[in-house]
Specification:
Length: 181
């Protein structure tokens, strides 16, 4: 049950009225197996953030899930992507990480790979099927982010993979807002 909740995005960092996280409660109540599951999930996030492939693979083989989230709603795939850890990105997707998962601001792993200027991670995510035109909660696409940050090579890669040009996106948004008025 704990694994299923974590895979659905349950927040392992949320505290109860006493300021205790689920891990704190599991330890206090002597639920060793649950504590190990929660710790393993945290370790997957840490291994992904560091790009530690041997630890990451070991954790994933032992059932460490890919859907756990940090305090910002980021999954292990988000953290590997923003840090530019291409091989970790590929491994996580191969183990079932959600390419379309969104953090609290609506960023997909592709948005964060772009934000980090990580050409290799962007390429890996696109090769694995990431949505090249995904929008954040504020409406930013990966291409918009790449252009606004001056990442020309990333912009070209996104365009080469079918990203809609910002002028096309603006025109379609403008016409849809006119038709709904």
């Amino acid at each position: 049950m704990v694994v299923a909740l974590l895979e659905m995005g349950a927040d392992r960092e949320i505290a109860n009225g006493r300021g205790q996280t689920p891990l704190d409660v599991a330890r206090d109540k002597g639920h060793k197996e649950i504590a190990e599951i929660l710790e393993r999930g945290e370790m997957v996030l840490t291994a992904a953030r560091r790009g530690d492939l041997s630890l990451l693979e070991s954790l994933l083989r032992k059932g460490g899930g890919t859907g756990g989230r940090d305090q910002y709603g980021m999954t292990a795939l988000h953290t590997a992507a923003i840090k530019g850890h291409r091989d970790a990105v590929c491994m996580l997707v191969d183990y079932g990480a959600d390419l379309h998962a969104r953090d609290r601001e609506g960023h997909t792993p592709l948005h964060l790979a772009v934000e980090g200027g990580c050409l290799g991670a962007v390429e890996a995510l696109l090769d694995k099927g990431a949505d090249v035109d995904a929008r954040t909660a504020r409406g930013a696409t990966p291409l918009y982010m790449a252009r606004s940050m001056g990442y020309d090579a990333v912009s070209q890669l996104l365009l080469g993979n079918g990203a809609a040009s910002p002028s096309v996106v603006s025109a379609s948004l403008h016409s849809s807002s006119l038709s709904s008025s």
